Automatic annotation (TrEMBL):
<keyword id="KW-0680">Restriction system</keyword>
<dbReference type="InterPro" id="IPR029063">
    <property type="entry name" value="SAM-dependent_MTases_sf"/>
</dbReference>
<dbReference type="InterPro" id="IPR018117">
    <property type="entry name" value="C5_DNA_meth_AS"/>
</dbReference>
<dbReference type="GO" id="GO:0008168">
    <property type="term" value="F:methyltransferase activity"/>
</dbReference>
<dbReference type="Pfam" id="PF00145">
    <property type="entry name" value="DNA_methylase"/>
</dbReference>
<comment type="similarity">
    <text>Belongs to the class I-like SAM-binding methyltransferase superfamily. C5-methyltransferase family.</text>
</comment>
<dbReference type="InterPro" id="IPR001525">
    <property type="entry name" value="C5_MeTfrase"/>
</dbReference>
<keyword id="KW-0949">S-adenosyl-L-methionine</keyword>
<protein>
    <recommendedName>
        <fullName>DNA (cytosine-5-)-methyltransferase</fullName>
        <ecNumber>2.1.1.37</ecNumber>
    </recommendedName>
</protein>
<dbReference type="GO" id="GO:0032259">
    <property type="term" value="P:methylation"/>
</dbReference>
<dbReference type="InterPro" id="IPR050390">
    <property type="entry name" value="C5-Methyltransferase"/>
</dbReference>
<keyword id="KW-0808">Transferase</keyword>
<keyword id="KW-0489">Methyltransferase</keyword>
<feature type="active site">
    <location>
        <position position="73"/>
    </location>
</feature>
Length: 409
């Protein structure tokens, strides 16, 4: 959806997970079948369901502007005398295979920021070098360390064919810094084919953050945030204001982080989601406000390591599932005080689980986007997704960079 909104026309979509496939088919995709074809403008996205290792990309050779994906990079060991043991679920090799079969102008992928921690960093550096030289295919009996040495040597040499080399930009991002009402720390890797002459420094400037926590704090102090939310009870406002830093942060050109309250009230033309009555936390769909998947869920708890989302902050990271609860830490602290105050309570307000629709808003999906499967599977899909607004921001920057490169004399 992100790249589509940025002006790209999806030519092929692949997904492994059953309910994610059902969601794609319910919204924008149709099973492609065995016949390989390039869809016409306006045609539904051709979906190949199943393992990416079984997908052939050759028929799209040199016809693709952007290859977009989120290849899983599972844990692996750097131990051992000769090599580290790579997890067989690591799908970066499949992304490199797709590049070799497509020769796209650009590539984008998202992954967890943990890839940059010291124990992973050597392998991540190798991934970046592979992305710069994806046509230097690794033999099955070659360790990644041995292949890495080959890549290092090749990178020191002048390219014989610039179309087979890519310029790589890795950006650490917090989704909240790009207008997403959620703190979500990730890395986004973008690669441009070397022969295109893309201005890499200009691209880096184009993807710098546009929103900040400091600007949110300033908006609370100057009252502009509270003018948007005039119905916030005074005691909630006082509590939020009491925790702001003193002195306030200096002014800059960023916009305020968007909060969970902003998302529920509606961003970019959305209507406000109706409140979920406390007597309807019963897993039943009441079509509150005419939107789907806005269903109350019982038994939300707050405990150590499972702290709630607060309305006047961006939501916590939406996860695919932790603590045995699909959707993980998706508890929302409301504005309503506890019926019986508890001495020393860290959170003096009633709480409940966020609905699927509230979570979808935090991931910046439109209310018209349908999610297939039971609640746990819907939350898992959202947790595994890239926030649409974040993906669209980077995809638009890529489109602009490609357009500018092609317009050079």
């Amino acid at each position: 959806m992100a790249v589509h909104r940025a002006g790209f026309r999806p030519l092929l979509v692949n997904e492994l997970v059953k309910y994610a496939c059902e969601t794609l088919k319910a919204n924008a995709a149709t099973p492609r079948g065995e016949t390989e074809h390039i869809p016409s403008p306006g045609e539904r996205w051709p979906l190949v369901e199943g393992d990416v290792r079984d997908v052939n990309f050759d028929y799209l050779w040199d016809r693709v502007d952007l290859l977009a994906g989120g290849p899983p990079c599972q844990p692996f060991s750097l131990g051992g005398v000769a090599k580290g043991d790579e997890d067989k679920r690591n799908m970066f090799p499949e992304m490199f295979r797709a590049i070799r079969q497509l020769q796209p102008k650009a590539v984008i992928c998202e992954n967890v920021r943990g890839l940059l921690r010291p124990s992973f960093k050597p392998y991540f550096d190798y991934i970046e070098r592979e992305l710069r030289l994806p046509f230097e295919e690794r033999d099955e009996d070659t360790t990644w360390r041995e292949h890495d040495e080959v890549l290092r040597k090749r990178l020191d040499e002048a390219p014989t064919d610039p179309k087979r080399r890519y310029e790589v930009v890795t950006t650490r991002v917090n989704a909240a810094d790009y207008g997403v009402p959620q703190v979500r720390n990730r890395i986004i890797i973008v690669a441009f084919r070397s022969d295109l002459g893309v201005d890499i420094n200009r691209f880096k400037e184009a993807v710098r953050p546009r929103y900040s926590e400091a600007a949110l704090i300033r908006s609370m102090l100057d009252g502009s945030y509270w003018k948007r939310h005039r119905d916030v009870p005074a005691h909630v406002r006082r509590r939020a204001m009491s925790r702001l830093p003193d002195p306030p942060p200096k002014a800059d050109d960023t916009r305020p982080w968007r909060t969970l309250r902003d998302a529920i009230k509606g961003l970019d033309g959305q209507s406000s989601l109706p409140p979920v009555p406390w007597d309807r936390l019963d897993r039943r769909e009441y079509h509150l406000g005419g939107v789907t998947d806005h269903i109350g869920w019982p038994d939300a708890r707050i405990y150590a390591g499972h702290t709630p989302n607060e309305l006047d902050r961006p939501a916590k990271t939406v996860k695919a599932g932790v603590h045995g609860v699909p959707g993980g830490e998706s508890v929302l602290l409301t504005d309503e005080p506890l019926p019986e105050p508890v001495d020393g309570a860290a959170y003096p307000y009633r709480h409940r689980y966020m609905t699927v629709r509230e979570t979808a808003r935090v991931m910046t999906f439109p209310d018209t986007w349908k999610l297939a499967g039971p609640r746990g599977e819907q939350m898992r899909q959202l947790g595994n997704a890239v926030p649409v607004m974040l993906g669209e921001f980077f995809a638009r920057a890529i489109a602009t960079a490609l357009d500018e490169a092609e317009s050079k004399p």
